[in-house]
Amino acid sequence: MDSRKIQKSVSGSYIITLPKEWVESHHLEKGERVNLVLSEDGILNLVPANQARSTAQECFQDFDGYESLSLAERRIKACYVEGDDVITVSSKKFIPSEAKARIKAAAGELIGMEVTEDFANKLVVRTLVDPVRFPIRDLMKRIYVLASSMHQDAVEALRRKDPDLARDVLGREREVEKLYRLLLRQIMISAKRVDIARTLGIRDARSGVLAALVARDLNRVAFYGASIARDQADVENGNEVVPDIVGMSEETKPMLESAMAAYFTEDWNLANRVLERLERLRELDTKVEEKILRKVKPIPSVLALTRIGRSLRRVGYGAANIAEATLVRVSDGA
Questions:
Q1: In the chain, at which end, N or C, are there fewer CB atoms within 10 A of the end residue's CB?
Q2: 54 CB contacts (<8 Å, ≥6 apart)?
Q3: Residues 144, 136: contact at Cβ < 8 Å?
């Protein structure tokens, strides 16, 4: 750690020198400006003014080094989440048409990404998203609304035996995935760009970590909703158990609502009440499982209803995780 002595000028201003290595590494000259960004924990960050105008972050990928096309797809998504603005995939020979199609499809699953250059041996994908237009809080609310509706409608599809509603739920899963990756991208950018972190809604490193944890649990809630929608197609007989499953859903719904309200309002009393409802959820889950084994006969129906009950329990656990993140956030002032 480098330390500097604070000096005081004749006019009363306080002066501190900057490390030569830092100045040279950022290519700063006499007369150039630096922005001062004060975090809520009292840390003062120095950000070169030219950083906000810096060139786009680029990610270069060697297609010849990929063992499979699935790796190419995952690397595109990873660079996007990392916060890169330009992703270049190149080959010393050529990129097969099937590979190009897969890469373009992967880019199409990411909000704001477009293929801007297409050559025989190179593809360039650019992100056209302005980070400040997507505050993290707004993205989190959109994911929550979608995930919550998936959970509720999946259970309703089971109750009504409505395959069309179940398919509609599954159609929302991809939208949640898109928003989730954009949210992770915003969190990563805020970690790199302290000059716009507050604009995005991140006050310091701790709040960024907690936001990522909450985003992960919301994404899982959406996944469990989609799982319920898939599993209901295998339920041939279970009329005696479905009302109990609906009861579990009615228990988890307010848990998730309260957990998110607690997170957004930093209400630790509300967060604690969510955690106190876990025991009730466990009791319902045990009763439902026992009833499935007693009342339901076809094995496919037994397995599907058991998986549905497990998914609902995990939705409740997701709400509890968010509540715990809220308690950490409030106690740490994140």
A1: N
A2: none
A3: no
- The residue written with tokens 């609310």 in the block is 141
Instruction: Tell me the average pLDDT across 55-71.
Output: 88
Asked if the domains 58-127 and 133-332 are classified in one and the same CATH topology, the answer is no
φ/ψ of 96, rounded to 5, equals -55, 150
CATH number of 58-127: 3.30.110.20
pTM over 0.70: yes
In three-state form (DSSP H/G/I as H, E/B as E, the rest C), the secondary structure along 98-125 is: HHHHHHHHHHHCCCCEEEEEEECCEEEE
Exposed, middle or buried by CB within 10 Å (0-12, 13-18, 19+), for 65? exposed
Q: What tens digit of pLDDT does each residue of 6-42 get?
A: 776 666 676 777 777 766 666 677 667 766 655 555 5
Calculate the dihedral angle through the C-alpha atoms of 230, 172, 190, 53, rounding to the nearest 10 degrees: 140
48 near 26, Cβ under 8 Å? yes
**Per-residue model confidence as pLDDT tens digits over 234-270:** 998 888 999 999 999 999 999 999 999 999 999 999 9
User: Phi and psi dihedrals of 26, rounded to 5?
Assistant: -100, 10
Distance CA 6, CA 17 (A): 8
Beta pairing partners, 47? 35
* Domain range list for the chain: 7-51, 58-127, 133-332
Q: What are phi and psi of 61, to 5 degrees?
A: -125, 135
Contacts of 117 (CB under 8 A, 6+ apart): 123, 124
Interhelix angle 97-108/69-82, rounded to 10 degrees, is 30
Strand extents, DSSP E, 163-227: none
d(CA 182, CA 122): 25
* Superfamily of segment(s) 133-332: Phosphate transport system protein phou homolog 2; domain 2 (1.20.58.220)
Q: Is the pLDDT of residue 51 over 90?
A: no
